[in-house]
Amino acid sequence: MSDEPAATPAKTVAVIGGGLSGSLFALKLSRARPDFAVIVIESGRRLGRGLAYGACTPDHLLNVPVSRMEVGLAPRFADWLQHDATARAAMVAALTESGGDLQSAFAPRALFGDYLQARVSEALIRDGGAGLSTMRGEAVRLRAGSRLGVRLADGRDIDADIVVLATGNMPPRAPGGPDAWLYDSDLFVPDPWASDALAGVRTDDAVLLLGTGLTAVDIVLKLEAAGHRGPLLALSRRGLTPHVHAAGGAWPSFLEEALPASPRTLLRLFRGQVEQAARLGVPWQRVFDAARPAVPAVWRGWSLAQKRQFLRRLRPRWDVHRHRMAPRVAARFEAIIDSGRLRTAAGRVTAYRRFVDAGGAGVDVVYRGAGGEGRFAARHVVNCTGPRRDIALSGIPLIADLREQGLATPDALGLGLETEDGALLDHARRPSARLFALGALTCPSWWEIVAVPEIAVQVDRLAAKLANDEATPDSHPLAPEDFLDLGAGI
Ligand SMILES: Cc1cc2nc3c(=O)[nH]c(=O)nc-3n(C[C@H](O)[C@H](O)[C@H](O)COP(=O)(O)OP(=O)(O)OC[C@H]3O[C@@H](n4cnc5c(N)ncnc54)[C@H](O)[C@@H]3O)c2cc1C
């Protein structure tokens, strides 16, 4: 194979979505196969950023250290951070916090976006229209003939031999609840990541955040950075907030030998390991890190009923232990709580009452346990329930089209699309040789395919498979063992 892009590409691969997954995949495939045309279709302006690394302020930090953000590109993220002048300036606080150790520093999230975007720009310039290229627009339909075709919302149409869906995180869904008038009013912010989401929030406005997870933490910090000083109430059913990272210690892998095991058995096992770790002075975080590579195997070993049981009963606690805050983020969040402006609580909204004159809503809340009842006068209600997963109900045109044509099948738990080694399963559960998916869409097969290390493994496997013309399923199925070298510290 020559290193020069061919005049007529050996294959055209359309990648729908240019966030981390789609951009990284396109970079890797176009590097491995300069004779392929790899076209990234992205509805947003900037490639490589997506939701996570796009709309963030300098206070939004990566929730894993630099060492865990390497995705196999040159230069490495750590090297780029050291050599890019703007990045160096933006890393001062992170390096102070980590005692000067770059690998264990929690960098601003926007820097990872800058890094990826720069890699894509370099590749686009290198390829000059052949090899890697991009189209700005929303893909809305797929044509499945002898060749595939992708239709964009603006009417453009492209042919492709292979289509890879990397459409990523969906905006949150409006929470079901009382007094639906609120969701149709301008008091409600349905998507906290929309560019204008917090535009109408004035300095002293009271804000109700629905959710107490990482999204709520993000929004609180964003409001703080914008000078907001009004009262904040973050509410969720259990009121659990993410835990914080802790450095140091090591813990051996322990989960693999316990499989298969029910969710309840695993809960007992985790408790036992955490107690042992505490006795030895090892942070419990290392126990979760040690378990992480086995997560896909655990998930795949469960029956549908066990998966349901986990999602209903254990997931909230799993999430706050697994998806943690960088220490500096936690310190800021706690300082806002300590200042008395932010309250996090377990409870549920029972009514939203219109304040006609004051232009807000009286939110009636029943707090959990002995918390009693209360009313919070909110000028804004921000949906911080996290990305929606129920793709089947989302009404996204491309996904609806794929389903109508029988080319994609949502899973029974409403987590994403059914895939086998990245290939979409059709209505008869046959794996496609031409349609693939990456990232959040493939959650039903892996459960946790959200963070950079897992996505990077998945991207590498699919790029290698397609580069070697092994589009047929089963060539080298991505297996739980592939995640074993993810390492600790995440
Ligand atoms: C706020 C936040 C913070 C995070 N922080 C971290 C972290 O610190 N460390 C970590 O490891 N992980 C983190 N993650 C998790 C992870 O890195 C991201 O979820 C990851 O970026 C997912 O990338 P993606 O490309 O799959 O999806 P997205 O980032 O959602 O990108 C998908 C892209 O597809 C485009 N798109 C969608 N549909 C279409 C269509 N029909 N046509 C054209 N374009 C389309 C969208 O515009 C978007 O740009 C974070 C996630 C979030 C949400």
Strand arrangement in the largest pleated sheet: 3-2-1-7-17-16-15
CATH superfamily of the largest domain: FAD/NAD(P)-binding domain
The CATH topology of the largest domain, please?
Answer: FAD/NAD(P)-binding domain
- What are the segments in which pLDDT stays under 50 over at least 5 consecutive residues? 484-490
Assembly classification? single chain
Report the top-level CATH class of the largest domain: Alpha Beta
Give Rg in angstroms.
23 Å
Q: What is the name of the CATH architecture of the largest domain?
A: 3-Layer(bba) Sandwich
Show the helix and strand layout.
Elements: E1 11-16, H1 20-32, E2 36-42, H2 77-83, H3 85-90, H4 92-97, H5 109-127, E3 132-136, E4 139-144, E5 148-152, E6 157-160, E7 162-165, E8 188-189, E9 207-210, H6 214-225, E10 232-236, H7 263-279, H8 284-291, H9 295-301, H10 304-322, H11 327-338, E11 342-355, E12 360-367, E13 373-378, E14 380-383, H12 397-404, E15 419-420, E16 423-425, E17 431-437, H13 443-446, H14 452-467
Parallel strand pairs: 1-2, 1-7, 2-3, 7-17, 8-14, 9-10, 9-14, 10-11
Antiparallel strand pairs: 4-5, 5-6, 11-12, 12-13, 15-16, 16-17
Helix pairs in contact: 1-5, 1-14, 7-8
The structure holds flavin-adenine dinucleotide.
Flavin-adenine dinucleotide binds next to helix 1 and strand 2.
Would you kindly provide a written description of the structure presented here, covering whatever features stand out?
With 490 residues, the protein is of the alpha/beta class. The protein folds into three domains: 254 residues, FAD/NAD(P)-binding domain, CATH 3.50.50; 123 residues, FAD/NAD(P)-binding domain; 67 residues, no CATH class. The chain contains 14 helices and 17 strands. The chain has a seven-stranded mixed sheet with strand order 3-2-1-7-17-16-15. A hairpin with a 2-residue loop joins strand 15 and strand 16. Helix 1 runs parallel beside helix 5 and helix 1 packs parallel to helix 14. It is globular. Flavin-adenine dinucleotide binds next to helix 1 and strand 2.
